[in-house]
Amino acid sequence: MAPAVKIGDKMVGEQHPCFFVAEIGINHNGDLGTAKKLIDAASLAGCQAVKFQKRTVDVVYTKEELARPRENPFGATNGDLKRGLEFGADQYREIDRYCRDKGMLWFVSCWDEPSVDFMEPFNPPCYKIASASLTDDKLLRHHRKYGRPIIISTGMSTLEEVDHAIEILGSKDLILMQATSTYPAQPTELNLRAIATFKDRYRVPIGYSGHEVGLATSVAAAALGACMIERHITLDRAMWGSDQAASVEPQGFARLVKDVRSVEAAMGDGVKNRLAAEVPIMQKLRREYGIWKKA
Q1: What is the 3-class SS of the chain, one letter each residue?
Q2: Separation CA 142–CA 164 (nearest Å)
Q3: How far apart are CA 261 and CA 192, in angstroms?
Q4: pTM score above 0.70
């Protein structure tokens, strides 16, 4: 069995309750008030953590990409959009205060090295590495130098690329997430059996990061052994924004947590025994009972 990983004051692993992450990402649309409402929704749903995304815009994107025309609420170029979606130090200080008041863990996916350095003073409980960054060896090493637990998603990746990423990161304090990077993902694209493949191959806690519509497949991921479930959260799937349609609304997130907790309670220990509560039913319904039939 893979050793559990400590995230804040919670343990993530096979023998622990499923750890729920509500990815706010960029669904706040650059508005701190919306971010707080999403934190509230995640807390009420029973999540243990929320996650944001952090980019140093001029590092992640080329000048040509930033100058590309793109109508958006912040201006007429892609650069206007990318800068408008980024929170700065003041906003993250308020997010940190707000989450602490709620008893909610929070962390980020950093898309570049300066973003990791930017987040370090907030003392995050872990870092998340996005699927898009799995092959960025320099960024992986930069994360590891701070010694914090790492969660890494595996969308758009081959098994050989996952092998290489784990060679770079090592397996200590690592959580690996099965993911499919289509938005929204179709059920036939999810490959939930990869959870078992990862468990056998890597001996680290395995989670699931979903981008599908609906909840059933995420519940199935937990039943198959995912000890962390991450889904994007939104106030309304019809809101403006590229990730909203692949996100879960507050009432759906609460249902997801409730259903996974029911599955956890139902799994049992695998040992087949007769329950004491079944004995009166057995005595009423069976003509004969016991291991051997009496002569």
Answers
A1: CCCCEEECCEEECCCCCCEEEEEEECCCCCCHHHHHHHHHHHHHHCCCEEEEEECCHHHHCCHHHHHCEEEECCEEEHHHHHHHHCCCHHHHHHHHHHHHHHCCEEEEEECCHHHHHHHHHHCCCCEEECHHHCCCHHHHHHHHCCCCCEEEECCCCCHHHHHHHHHHHCCCCEEEEEECCCCCECHHHCCCCHHHHHHHHHCCCEEEEECECCCHHHHHHHHCCCCEEEEEECCCCCCCCCCHHHCECHHHHHHHHHHHHHHHHHHCCCCCCCCHHHHHHHHHHCCCCCCCCCC
A2: 16
A3: 19
A4: yes
Q: Sign of dihedral through CA atoms 215, 217, 219, 222?
A: negative
Instruction: Quote the CA–CA distance of 264 and 222 in Å, as a whole number.
Output: 8
240-295 pLDDT per residue, tens: 999 999 999 999 999 999 999 999 999 999 999 999 999 999 999 998 876 655 54
51 within 8 A of 107, measured Cβ to Cβ = yes
Give the domain ranges of the chain. 5-285
Residue-wise burial string across 188-225, b where 16 or more C-beta atoms lie within 10 A, e elsewhere: eebebebbeebbeebebbbbbbbbbbebeebbbbbebb
* Exposed / middle / buried, residue 71 (Cβ in 10 Å: 0-12, 13-18, 19+): exposed
Closest Cα to residue 199, out of 232, 164, 162? Answer: 162
Q: Is the distance from CB of 175 to CB of 12 less than 8 angstroms?
A: yes
Spatial separation of the C-alpha atoms in residues 230 and 207, rounded to whole Å: 8
CATH 3.20.20.70 fits 5-285, yes or no: yes
Q: Write out pLDDT tens, residues 6-47.
A: 999 999 999 999 999 999 999 999 999 999 999 999 999 999
